[in-house]
């Protein structure tokens, strides 16, 4: 069991779940309400990863609008309300996530989720996709004082899962995930199919996977290298 005692800390949006279509719909409902230009699905894929507040502000920036804090607070609450009512209309796990988790779990790994999404939304989404029970902890940005890329967010999710820092690895898709892993001093694997405005190679992770079927071997090589 090559992953005995290991905890794999997963990012959520763009890493485990393709959430962009539902986030896109909710974002454009807000843009429409505010009389701003619609954002494209590709825009959303570049804007996700720093939470709903950042998504809205980045969407508005496309129309050269910058909301003040109070307005942004209000719009974020509205966004969450819109998004959560139909959270998994189009969202789905990336191909082979479940079979890969089965395989890794048979090698001794435990899993948790460290996401810049709101915790309640993250749980609701994973429940809708029938996989919430697979994760020892699901920790969103609202549950910590400092979200990813701060190490506290990573450590909080890991501790809540009963994991050990020197036996943990981050798996994510964006600059926030690489930052959290580097700040916590742990290795990081990026998926090539996630949400980021910076190419995964430029983020210099320890490894990149193009499909979940590559994850077991990627982890094996990482551990053999002793990264
Ligand atoms: O930006 C978000 O809402 C969350 O993104 P994450 O799951 O990739 O951290
Ligand atoms: Mg992500």
Automatic annotation (TrEMBL):
<keyword id="KW-0479">Metal-binding</keyword>
<dbReference type="InterPro" id="IPR023198">
    <property type="entry name" value="PGP-like_dom2"/>
</dbReference>
<comment type="similarity">
    <text>Belongs to the HAD-like hydrolase superfamily. CbbY/CbbZ/Gph/YieH family.</text>
</comment>
<protein>
    <recommendedName>
        <fullName>phosphoglycolate phosphatase</fullName>
        <ecNumber>3.1.3.18</ecNumber>
    </recommendedName>
</protein>
<dbReference type="InterPro" id="IPR006439">
    <property type="entry name" value="HAD-SF_hydro_IA"/>
</dbReference>
<dbReference type="InterPro" id="IPR037512">
    <property type="entry name" value="PGPase_prok"/>
</dbReference>
<dbReference type="InterPro" id="IPR050155">
    <property type="entry name" value="HAD-like_hydrolase_sf"/>
</dbReference>
<keyword id="KW-0460">Magnesium</keyword>
<dbReference type="Pfam" id="PF13419">
    <property type="entry name" value="HAD_2"/>
</dbReference>
<dbReference type="InterPro" id="IPR041492">
    <property type="entry name" value="HAD_2"/>
</dbReference>
<comment type="pathway">
    <text>Organic acid metabolism; glycolate biosynthesis; glycolate from 2-phosphoglycolate: step 1/1.</text>
</comment>
<dbReference type="GO" id="GO:0008967">
    <property type="term" value="F:phosphoglycolate phosphatase activity"/>
</dbReference>
<dbReference type="InterPro" id="IPR023214">
    <property type="entry name" value="HAD_sf"/>
</dbReference>
<keyword id="KW-0119">Carbohydrate metabolism</keyword>
<keyword id="KW-0378">Hydrolase</keyword>
<dbReference type="InterPro" id="IPR036412">
    <property type="entry name" value="HAD-like_sf"/>
</dbReference>
């Amino acid at each position: 069991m090559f992953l005995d005692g290991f905890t794999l800390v997963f990012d959520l949006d763009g890493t485990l779940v393709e959430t962009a279509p539902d986030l896109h719909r909710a974002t454009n409902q807000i843009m429409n309400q505010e009389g701003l230009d619609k954002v494209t699905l590709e825009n959303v894929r570049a804007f996700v990863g720093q939470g709903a507040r950042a998504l809205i502000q980045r969407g508005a920036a496309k129309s050269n609008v910058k909301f003040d804090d109070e307005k942004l607070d209000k719009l974020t609450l509205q966004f969450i309300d819109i998004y959560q009512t139909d959270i998994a209309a189009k969202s789905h796990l990336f191909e082979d996530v479940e079979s890969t988790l089965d395989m890794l779990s048979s090698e001794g790994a435990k899993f948790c989720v460290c996401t810049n999404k709101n915790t309640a939304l993250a749980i609701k989404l994973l429940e809708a996709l029938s996989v919430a029970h697979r994760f020892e902890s699901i920790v969103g940005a609202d549950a910590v004082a400092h979200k990813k890329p701060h190490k506290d967010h990573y450590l909080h999710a890991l501790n809540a899962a009963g994991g050990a820092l020197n036996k943990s690895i981050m798996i994510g898709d964006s600059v926030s995930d690489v930052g959290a892993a580097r700040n916590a001093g742990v290795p990081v694997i990026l998926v090539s199919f996630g949400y980021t405005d910076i190419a995964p190679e430029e983020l210099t992770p320890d490894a990149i996977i193009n499909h979940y079927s590559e994850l077991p071997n990627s982890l094996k090589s990482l551990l053999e290298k002793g990264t």
